[in-house]
Design brief:
Elements lengths: L7 H26 L3 H5 L2 E8 L4 E3 H13 L3 E15 L2 E15 L5 E17 L2 E20 L27
Parallel strand pairs: 1-6
Antiparallel strand pairs: 1-2, 3-4, 4-5, 5-6
Length: 177
């Protein structure tokens, strides 16, 4: 593996930095899903440039907008994976990863339905005081699929799995990690 021209210590630093950025992306998904607004804000530098198409501005202004969108869903699920990363300096990096997201809400007829989205995140990262965060982000939607007839929150013998419904922050199953 290795990075050509790097000493063992520098290569170890790159591995640790890569892992820190991977953990950042996992935290991003998790804090959206559990409606942890402070946790979501901790993923970005406040002045980070954000472009999701429907929103262009700073992370500080984006957090309340995205959290309102997430709170409108009875359930949401995000997964970021396939990170390709290039370090542009000792405290900066650029990355691209794929994202899957689903949102489910009750329609006018009371039936639970939603959408599954596939896209990619074009990010830059910056480390300050030892902490990596997103310094800029552009999201590109590649595709969307409907998710009709999702189970509601009530127990059913024909669907014996527990259904997690997170409608507000502070869910009792959420564990800060």
């Amino acid at each position: 593996m290795g990075w050509p021209g790097l000493t063992m210590d520098a290569e170890l630093r790159r591995l640790l930095d890569t892992r820190a950025i991977e953990a950042l992306l996992a935290r991003y998904s998790r804090t959206l899903d559990w409606l942890d607004e402070d946790g979501q804000a901790s993923c970005y530098w406040p002045e980070a440039a954000i472009d999701y198409g429907f929103f262009t501005g700073t992370a500080k202004d984006f957090i309340p907008v995205v959290m309102a969108i997430e709170r409108a869903s009875a359930r949401r699920w995000h997964l970021l994976t396939g990170l390709a990363l290039r370090f542009t300096g000792s405290d900066t990096a650029e990355g691209e990863c794929y994202g899957l997201a689903a949102g489910v809400r009750a329609g006018a007829d009371g039936r639970m339905a939603g959408n599954l989205y596939g896209g990619r995140y074009l990010d830059s990262y910056a480390r300050r005081n030892g902490e990596w965060r997103i310094a800029s982000r552009r999201y590109i939607l590649d595709w969307s699929l409907p998710l009709p007839d999702q189970p509601d929150d009530s127990p059913r013998p024909d669907f014996p799995l527990p259904v997690l419904s997170i409608r507000t922050s502070g869910h009792p199953l959420y564990r800060p990690l």
